[in-house]
Amino acid sequence: MVQVVEMSAAQRREVERLARSTSEPRRMVVAATALLALADGVSVRATARAVGSHQDTVARWRDRFLAAGVEGIGVIAAGRGRRPEIGQDVIDAVVDDTLHSVPEDGSTCWSTRTLGVRHGVSKDTVAKIWRARNLRP
């Protein structure tokens, strides 16, 4: 059974504008194109083939549009996309503490876990910083 995406005339105009856009991000243009096909009664599977995407992705675009309207087109869901990089100030602080201080708990050197807790990053982040600079506590 094909679930037709229903949209108002104003929503359709905006989705058509996004689908024709040359300045919007590609993910928005492709999602808008897919939504127009779904609104015209094309199945999710056929739409996915037409836009060169997976049918689960097209279904997610449809569901997001039904929940959020035009504002939901092209939105990257939480937890998706590129992970934030570590700020240079945090890297500098980790390196400085590694080289010039000792933990307050009486240990003779920092562990990745204690230094991570001190700077609010993971132990793996501390290990990555140390490895990149050839540091050993």
Give the topology string: H per helix, E per strand: HHHHHHH
When the domains are counted, the total is: 2
Q: Main β-sheet, in a few words? A: none
Helix content: 55-70%
Mean pLDDT: 90
Give the CA-based shape. rod-shaped
Alpha-beta classification: mainly alpha
Strand content: under 5%
What is the end-to-end distance? 62 Å
Total strands: 0
Radius of gyration: 24 Å
Uncertain ranges: none
- SS element count, helices: 7
Descriptive notes:
The protein is mostly helical. It folds into two domains: 9-72; 88-132. Helices cover 58% and strands 0% of the residues. The chain has helices spanning 9-20, 26-39, 44-51, 55-68, 88-100, 112-119, 123-132.
Nutshell version of this structure?
The protein has 137 residues and is mainly α. The chain has 2 domains: 9-72; 88-132. It has helices spanning 9-20, 26-39, 44-51, 55-68, 88-100, 112-119, 123-132.
Characteristics of this structure?
single chain; rod-shaped; 137 residues
Give the topology:
Layout: H1 9-20, H2 26-39, H3 44-51, H4 55-68, H5 88-100, H6 112-119, H7 123-132
Helix pairs in contact: 1-2, 2-3, 2-4, 3-4, 6-7
